[in-house]
Amino acid sequence: MQSTDRRDFLKLAGIAGVTFTAGLFPGRPASAQRGADFHFVQISDTHWGYKGPANPDAEHTLEKAIVTVNGLAQKPDFIVFTGDLTHTTEDGKVRRERMKRFKEIVSELNVKDVRFLAGEHDAALDKGEAFKEFFGATHYTFDHKGVHFIALDNVSDPGARLGEEQLAWLAADLKQRKHDDRIVVLTHRPLFDLVPNWDWTTADGAKAIDLLMPYQNVVVFYGHIHQENDHMTGHIAHHAARSLIFPQAAPGNAPKRPPPPPFDASLKPLGTRDVAMGAKAPVITELPVTKA
Amino acid sequence: MNRRLFIALLIAGSAAEGVVRLARAAAPGEIEIQAMKFDFTPETVEVKRGQAVTLVLTSIDRIHGFKMPEFGVRTDIVPGEETRVTITPEKAGTFVFFCDVFCGDGHEEMSGTLVVEN
Q1: Shortest CB distance from A88 goes to which of B98, B100, B105?
Q2: How confident is the model at residue A113 (pLDDT cuts 50, 70, 90)?
Q3: Inter-chain CB pairs, A–B, below 8 Å
Q4: For A132-235, where are the E strands, in sequence order?
């Protein structure tokens, strides 16, 4: 499988601009919006319930981000949360309390089409049981304005496997697609081996990529690593999003994965993103937690 | 209570209930590694380049994983069972092993180092 790192990514992906905030708020240039069929917003790794020095403002970050998303001049058609909605706990009662409170907070979003994926913090300790009670299925598809979205679950199995059953489901779904259909895959963990020594991978993710490879227009959006990252496996682009809780170390910058670096608000390590879907590659615009 | 003291007490408590077997001396060419949320003991394992060594893996609390990507090694560690992995390191250096079965808040730090000496 051919892999490409970030240095070569933009050129190969043909992305005209991965911009930062400009164009999405009232009164600002809207170049990033032109030509888009629709927009969606990706929010990832909110880890509701986390308390610690990696984010001194953890209790308010999600609410602030919701205000920012609600203020977008171009209202997104839908919003997707790509996992780790809540921070892990071994107490099933606390897990459900966190999910309940998380759901209450995000009900303040003024876009009502909201999709949820699980992360291992939500689902790995109970195989997704609590997540399903609050948010429904952990893998599913939906179609929006000519784009086929596939949400994959690589976290309910504590060994970070999609599993043969889900892979068969994916294969059956893809058989119904034409090879030039526009397909967006949503998932929590990277499907490819980003940093095997940090377990930043999906145990059987290569099987999913092999299934997707015959399709010409596939893009993957994921979370888990708490930072932007762009990567190509062949012609398939994979885009990781920032988190709303704390940043993680840059991929592979140490033999073992270091703990989260000290929080430094000046680095703007947290945020969400707008994705403009047009005829060409998606245009990603990173959004701050709070509008400047 | 600091974490190490807490873990020591937990092990002592478990041993009193007969959950933990007394450690036995490892056979020649064997190194025992015990997994428990969220540590491997020992955390650092030293071996010689070119010499086969069998890692004898046990868990005293729940299923953990043991993954060493640079050696193509990955296995579950199931409580009550010994899992044996034999490797022959061909080059000196330090190599990471870690738990790859999500086991709770601390899972991401559950790792160790294999040191291969000339």
Answers
A1: B105
A2: very high
A3: 43
A4: 140-144, 147-151, 182-186, 217-222, 229-233
